[in-house]
Every structure is written in structure tokens, then in C-alpha cells.
Amino acid sequence: MKKELYRKIPKVDSMIEKKEFKDYLKKIDQKIVVGIIRKYLDGLRSEISSSDDLKKLEKSIENIDKTILDRLDSIYSSNLKRVINCTGVVVHTNLGRSVLSEDIFNEIKDILTHYTNLEYDLSKGERGSRYNIVEDVICLLTGAEAALVVNNNAAAVILALNTLSSGKEAIVSRGELVEIGGSFRIPEVMRMGGAELVEVGTTNRTHLVDFENAISENTGVILKVHTSNYKVIGFSKNVDSADLVKLGKERDIIVMEDLGSGTMVDLSKFNIAYEPTVHECVKKGVDVVTFSGDKLLGGPQAGIILGNKELVGRMKKNQLTRALRVDKFTLASLESVCRKYLLESKALKEIPTLRMIIQPEEEIKFKAEKLYKMIKDKNPSANVKTEKCKSKIGGGSLPEELLDSYAVALYPDKTNASRIDREFRSLEIPIVARINEDRVILDMRTVFDDDYEIIAEEVNRILE
Ligand SMILES: *Cc1c(COP(=O)(O)O)cnc(C)c1O
After folding, report:
1. Model confidence at 236, in pLDDT bands (50, 70, 90)?
2. Is the pTM of this model over 0.85?
């Protein structure tokens, strides 16, 4: 019986003679196609030898062509896809965090498709430094004396600790030993940076005197970490950066703050919980400030380090900087995003992350009604409604903050909600929605203008 199965496995040569496979040879080199087929057939042979589920094996053999063609298809199409975000989570960590506007993209397109002055000083006609490209504008916006951009905020923290506290102690409150998603854990990051962690205080309460008592001749830095993804409430106390700065000055110790999200705009103007701005943090006199480029700033993945010339200068010279440096894609888009902040009203309008965070409920309601109408126009019996919902900022920023929003909700009858959800995710342009009980919620906060048509079409197709 097994012999029979082995015999049924086709020859590679005869397979690639078939029209469907030949079509692929125009798009993918023959040796790659043959490699894929061989690997699959070998796997099948070893399955035959090890498995006794003859029915399943027979089915696999019947489907060989289709399985391999599907595999070729998925190899040929891009793995990183555009996705429609109907979750309402603006800085969605799994969906690429911040989105660049088309306007920014057009601005950087010219730079990225041509040679640039990335490391060329045009006024002197000699080698320049890539670090100068965004430093000026960042300093202007934050009030810092100097700035350095690296791969991400995790890298920024590691580089700062490695430069300022390697082989020395770094004092942190026990209330701030945070873990960010993707296993960024402050204690481990400190070890990576070569600093020895000295924990002070307790989970819920840390006092200035705890820091005072922990200072020794081996102290490198006092580190404050913004607890961006959780909140200790109730009987709790933490030490303000301003008090740490004062202590640092008295005892000649560097004070560093990892802001995490790092907002440039005071969002409390828009009835969103107050979060210290980067500018305020610098103004308090914190020696080194780090934050992400793609959270509330709304730019590309990057880590921004602020400080005085001497400290940032030491970081620029650190060999690690070379390994953590950013490329021209990042610099071009970061510069473009930062320049928007020169006029705050422009930043609020033209940086998608900010625009979506401050988008008023009535505007989102309008978006929901538009999509609702598009669905109903084609399919009057569709069981859909518009309804209020709550969206989140995401990215570990302002964890408690729920924003009033509006959604189009699908009430499936024939099929159930999780099946629709699955179908949405398998689309050419996948749609990521929220499931609530047995309905599918499309939060319109994070939906873009060019998403409507696609959503309406797919919803009607699936509901049919
Ligand atoms: C998000 C975050 C980080 C990590 O930033 P990445 O840019 O993702 O590397 C570090 N610290 C805090 C407090 C954060 O919120």
C-alpha cells in the first residue's frame, strides 16, 4: 500500500512541464521553483514512511499541485502587506505603530530614489555626519542642547546606559521596573547596557530619600522610567523628575529619563489625560531624555536621545552607536515629521497618529455613517448598524485613556462573527476588526479615506 503511494508521487521534471508551473518560471527562477517542489516531495516521502494515516497521505498526494502552487503564490506576493485597521487602536504595535502620511511619503520619495548628502557636508565639500541631519530641528522643538537618533527607544536606553553608567550602578524605583510588550524589560536592558541595577523603594511607593540613601561613589545614573503601559493607583507615590534633578545636581549624578512615548504636544488640550511633553521634561533639567519615534511622535521607528553637548557627544563616540545607527529611510521620514511640528496646528492635521488621536467623535460618526450608507446602498437587507464605541491610543501610551468613537457594527446571522473576522484577515488587503460578543465592530477612528470602498465591498461579499 505504501509502495503504491510512493509511486503516485510525481517527478519534478514532469511537474514543471505543466502549464501552471511554466507560468511561474517566468516570474521565479527555475532552480528556486525546483527547490521548493523537491523539498515538499521529500517531506511527503518521509511522511509516508512515518505515518499510517493512508487517507490523509492520499489526499496530500492528490493536492500536490495545488499546495505547491499556493506556496509559489505566497512566495511571489509580498509578505508585508497593507492592512486596514478597524480596531480603533491608533498606535497599534502589531500593525506597524505610526503611519506616515502620503504627503510625507512624497516628500521623502525624491530623497530615497536618488543620491543624498547623508554623510556629505555640502558647504565644505567633505565628509559630513549623518547625525547632523535631524539634530537641529529636534533641538529646536525640544529645547535640548544636543540630540542623537538611533534605531529605536530600546537602543537609545541601552546606548545611554552603556555610555554613562557602564560598570557603575544605575538607581531605579521598584515602581518603574517595567516590561514593555516584545519583552523590553528595564532590568535586562540595564544589564545589556553594562549597568548594575540598584532598586529602591517599593512597588507602590518610592521617596526621594530612597534615592538619596542609594547613592554611592559607584553611582553612574539615576534612571526614571515613564510607566507608560500601566498605572499604580491607590496608596502610591513616586518621585518627580524635578526632585531627582535637584538631587542629581547636589550630588553630581546624571539623571536620565526614559519617556517611552514622548509626546511633543500637550494632549490635555484635547481632553486626553495629561502626559508630560518632551519639552517639559527637558525644561525640568533632566540630563538625558529618551523616547520613541513611532509612538506619539507619529514618525518612523527610531529612538531619540536628548542631552547636553558633552553627554550626547560621548554617546556619538561610543562604538555601539555605529551598530545602532539609523539609515536614510529613517532620517528622511523623521526629519519630515519633525518639520511638521514647527507649526503645531500643522502637525495636528498632517501627522496621521496625532490627527486620529484628537479626531472628534462627530467626525468619526460622520465616517461611520458614510460607510454604513455604502454598505446599505448595495445591500439594503444587510444587518449593520452604526454605534458608539471606545478606541485606545495604544503603543503603551496612556493605557487608561479611552477615546469616544464611532463604529459600524455587523450583526451576522448566517455566519458567526469570528468566521467573518477570519475571512477579513485572509483578504488580499486584510481587514483587522474587533469582535464583541457576536458582532464585528469596525471602529472608524483608524480607517482611512481609501479604505472605505474595500471595506464596503468585502462586507457585502461576506454578508451575502
Ligand atoms: C515603548 C517603550 C520603550 C521601547 O521603545 P521602542 O521604540 O519600541 O524600542 C522603552 N521604554 C518605554 C517606557 C516605552 O514605553
Report:
1. confident
2. yes
Buried b / exposed e across 231-265, counting CB within 10 Å, b at 16+?
Answer: eeeeeeebbebeebbebbeeeebbbbbbbbbbbbb
Q: Ligand 1 atom closest to Cα of 156?
A: 9
Cell (9 digits) for 222: 539615576
| SS3 state at 304 | strand
Domain residue limits, the chain: 2-76, 84-91+358-463, 102-350
150-160 as b/e: b if 16+ CB within 10 A? bbbbbbbbbbb
Question: Is the CB–ligand 1 distance for residue 228 below 6 Å?
Answer: yes
Residue-wise pLDDT tens digits, 284-342: 999 999 999 999 999 999 999 999 999 999 999 999 999 999 999 999 999 999 999 99
Beta carbon of 225 within 6 Å of any ligand 1 atom: yes
The answer to whether the CB of 296 is under 6 A from ligand 1 is no
Tell me the pLDDT tens digit for each residue of 361-401.
999 999 999 999 999 999 999 999 999 999 999 987 777 78
The CATH code belonging to domain 102-350 is 3.40.640.10
3-class secondary structure, 401: strand
Average pLDDT over residues 251-274: 94
In the block, residue with C-alpha cell 532552480: 31
Which CATH code fits 84-91+358-463?
3.90.1150.180
Answer yes or no: is the C-beta of 180 below 6 A from any ligand 1 atom. Answer: yes
CB atoms within 10 A of CB 35: 12
**Residue 387 in 3-state DSSP?**
strand
Asked if the domains at 84-91+358-463 and 102-350 fall in one CATH topology, the answer is no
Q: Is 443 left (phi over 0), alpha (psi -120 to 50) or beta?
A: beta
Nearest-CA residue for ligand 1 atom 14 is: 260
Lookup: cell for 369: 455613517
